[in-house]
Amino acid sequence: MKQNAHFRDLIEPYLNRWKFILLCVIAASTLAFVYLRYASNEYQAKATIKIKDDKSQGKLPEISSLQNYGLFSNDQNNVLDEIEILKSRNLIESVIKDLKFNIQFFVEGRIQAHEVYTNPPLNINFSTTDSLLHLIDTTFNIRINSSKDFIFKGIPQDTKILKGSTTQHDDIEGVLYDFGKNVETGFGDIIITPNIGQYATKIGADITIRIQPVNNVTSDYKSRLQIQTNELSSVIKLTINDNVREKGVLFLNKLIEKYNEDVINDKQMVVEATSNFINERLEGVSRELGIVDLTAEDIQQENKLTNLATQSNIFLQTEKENEAKITETGREIQLIDYMKNHLANNQGPSDLMPLNIGIEDGNIGQVAKRHNSLVQERERILKNSSEINPTVVNLTNQINQLKADLSQSLSSKRSTSQITYNSLVSENSRINSQIYSAPQKERQFKDIKRQQDIKESLYLYLLQKREESAITHGVSSPNAKIVDKAYASGRPVAPKSAIIILAALILGISFPIGLIYLLTLIDNKVHSIQDIKKTIDVPFIGDIPKSSKRTQLIKQIDYTPKAEAFRMVRTNVEFMLKGINKHSKVIFVTSTTSKEGKSHTSINLALSLSYSNKKVLLIETDIRVPKATNYLNVKNDIGLTNYISDPSLTLSDVTTSMKDNDFLDVIPSGVIPPNPAELLMSNRMQELFDTVDNQYDYIIVDTAAVGLVTDTLLISHHADLFIYVVRANYLDKRRLQIADTMYQEKRLPNMTILLNGVDHKKSNGYGYGYGKNPNTKKWWQRSK
After folding, report:
1. Which residue ranges does UniProt annotate as crossing the membrane (predicted)?
2. Contact 757, 525 (CB under 8 A)
3. Other C-beta atoms within 10 Å of 425: how many?
4. What three-state secondary structure class fits 726?
5. Local structure of residue 659 (DSSP, 8 states)
6. CA angle 391–395–399, rounded 5-degree value
7. Which residues of 180-194 are buried (b: 16+ CB within 10 A; e: fewer)?
8. Does residue 445 contact residue 300 with C-beta atoms inside 8 Å?
């Protein structure tokens, strides 16, 4: 039971204010619904791509296997680099320009304007250049007047209208223009035409056209673009939120497309550099081959060597093999010289090296390929940075070092090839010397024929490489493989209705509960009998409900809650005093401080006792601030103070009988004295109580507040019962210690507590009042 009572006390402040809590919940819910009604929806578009790693091609399988297991892995760095490229301002700006996101069309609805991107209601053609258009920041307001003309209104300050006539239309001032006519503005002419067909512009529609600088739109989309990837994964997820569902999808698809175009352009730059190198070499080899052919033709004509096929049979098989090696070695020396010349002429950090031109040295090929990869990476970073960037400086140093290594490798390779070539030539001379039957002229022709074969072989090889380069140029693959195309669901991701409504409900409940808890926490007033019992253990005689000031006094026939409360107090008083054998029962009424209703309680208790045909005397001993006589409209010219200070006065001289109540007499306080405490200590007080003892059934004494003065304590020994009045919602709980001290020290005989001014609508009680007043007239009887 104690736990239930304690729980009841905890929730009582909230139950008493349930209407306030309900009002807050309704208000919060209303605000949430209004916000959801007018808030702009946001849709989320998503796309997934996979980054291809072309840099790992050509590496040894063992190294690739180690990298697949995470050792020496640089795949994650590659993916992070590609993410930075995807988020680069240049790439996003090109997307914004292609999709024309800097021009927006808003159609006014019944509640708010909504943006239309696909099939806008109007088309605008600008005469200004794109470079100027991308810097404009302005807004046009247009109302469709008819199918042929429109009203240009809300003209911004930076827009100067030169043509058209001012008109008044539906209280809207603007300039009337025909569709298709030039509208001259401060940034150039514009031509506005309506959409037709299914998406035709409605007459009377209000349309707002907003043009923003591309830089601002780019910054907005760059901040909203989110790119995510997992560790050791080359899969990238792109996400963006937009108020228009189609715009988010188009943005992501166009971003992927632009990214792939940028990567393909980088690859084509390498292919073009290789193709240009091969074409230059082809021209030189072609000229050299023509000279060798003319030389061979001259030798044949001079030496009359016409049947070369028959004469070639004299060569031995070993000589043929040696000739082939000499040809291969000579071709390689020529390629090395070409490569060295190209390297010497292209020393810049942005110059690319040709790949796979036929030099049989894996180290040279890998160095050239590594060189091109660093050049491309440097160029990509430079798109969003500068040459003083530490990363760019580091890459430049690496590129220069690779050029130096490549030059050294080519020189070393040429020296080796030259030694091999010289050895083969010496071997060939030895073989030729053994062919004693070969004439000197034929040997000369062989030398020319050998040069001719070398040039022809080199020429055919370069032609083959040129075709391979052309094929590579035509089949360059994009770097990003699309796993999932951009997609946006039909349901908006913001605002989230369920979360907002739930948050509103939580706020609507928690705010009033928190406020009530805070008020309860700092509230130190006495509100109910439970608050009193928590501090002191004094008999409780009853509580008086709060009532209107117009009904301060109860009546003999009275069915109000106040009257019933005083009847209950009267019954409890009779029970508390049933052991008193003397005729008059003296009841003192006091309180802790002023304005707690002790005078009000004294008078109404006296009235209630007199209505039960008991002879009652009301004595007003609060001679400092008398109030009882004001309630009863009794003159206070002569009273208790006069009786005490003037021995010649009798009790009848200061006693006033009530006109309408034969059972109630009153002794007012009298003139306010300068020494109230000393006056109450007079023997005349004892004489007064002795005199009235046999004349009345009850003596009600309205005393001063014990928490302010000692007047009541001076005469407390005359009391048979003390009613200690505590005013609800007024007295500080800490001041109940005064009442507890009075009770524990027995300074107030037979002390009881009466709670005054209780608001039963906010307290635990059910209130007073039972039955109906028989004198109450019905509504149809009030006119009689």
Report:
1. 20-38, 498-519
2. no
3. 15
4. strand
5. S
6. 170
7. eebbebebeebebeb
8. yes
Neighbouring CB atoms inside 10 A of 138's CB total: 16
**Cα gap 29→23, rounded to integer Å:** 10
- Determine whether 390 is exposed, middle or buried from the number of CB atoms within 10 Å of its CB (0-12, 13-18, 19+): exposed
Give the CB-side neighbour count of residue 717, counting CA atoms within 13 A. Answer: 6
Distance of CA 346 to the CA centre of its chain: 54
Measured from the Cβ of residue 263, the count of other Cβ atoms closer than 10 Å reads 22
- CA gyration radius for the chain? 56
For residue 679, pLDDT over 50 is answered with yes
pLDDT, position 338:
80
Number of residues that this document lists for the chain: 784
Helix (H, G, I), strand (E, B) or coil at 388: coil
The Cα 702–Cα 538 span in angstroms is 20
More reliable by pLDDT, 302 or 706: 706
72: burial class by Cβ within 10 Å (0-12, 13-18, 19+)?
exposed
Q: How many CA atoms lie within 13 A of 426 on its CB side?
A: 6
Contact 178, 158 (CB under 8 A): no
Closest CA to 270 of 410, 195, 368, 179: 368
Q: What is the predicted pLDDT for the residue at 558?
A: 85
Tell how strand 698-702 and strand 585-591 pair up. Answer: parallel
- Residue 272 identity: E
Give me the residue label for tokens 């008086």: 544
Closest C-alpha to 103, from 247, 245, 239: 247
Query: What is the rounded average pLDDT of the residues 315-321?
Result: 70
Cβ–Cβ < 8 Å for 564, 678: no
CA-wise closest residue to 614 among 697, 731, 511, 670: 697
Q: What is the pTM of this model?
A: 0.53
> What's CA 354's distance to the chain center, in Å?
53
CA distance 259 to 82: 9
Q: What is the DSSP letter of 106?
A: E
One-letter amino acid of 742: M
DSSP code string of 337-353: HHHHHHHHH--STT---
Amino acid of residue 625: V
With tokens 């490549």, the residue in question is 406
What's the pLDDT at 140?
79
Give kind and range of the element (H or E) at residue 114.
strand 113-115
Question: What is the reported pLDDT for 434?
Answer: 56
Do the beta carbons of residue 600 and residue 618 sit within 8 Å?
A: no
Residue 450 φ then ψ, to 5°: -65, -45
User: Which tokens hold the place of 104?
Assistant: 């927006």
Q: What is the pLDDT of residues 529-578, one digit of tens each?
A: 888 888 888 999 999 998 877 778 888 888 888 999 999 999 999 998 88
8 Å CB contact between 596 and 706: no
- Taking alpha carbons only, the member of 513, 577, 501, 509 closest to residue 539 is 577
In angstroms, the Cα distances linking 150 to 39, 346, 508 are 29, 62, 48
C-alpha closest to that of 628 among 647, 642, 650, 607: 607
CA terminus-to-terminus distance, the chain: 54
Closest CA relative to residue 182, chosen from 222, 133, 227, 124:
124
Over residues 597-609, the pLDDT tens digits come to: 899 999 999 999 9
User: What pLDDT sits at residue 567?
Assistant: 93
Pair of tokens at residue 113: 């304007």
The helix/strand/coil state of 145 is coil
- 3-state per-residue secondary structure call for 479-527: CEEEEEEEEECCCCCECCHHHHHHHHHHHHHHHHHHHHHHHHHHCCECC
Listed in sequence order, the DSSP H helices in 681-772 are 683-692, 711-714, 736-744
Query: What is the percentage of the chain residues whose pLDDT exceeds 70?
Result: 82
Interior CA angle at 660 toward 656 and 661, to 5°?
70
Which strands make up the sheet holding 480-488, listed edge to edge?
226-229, 235-242, 43-51, 480-488
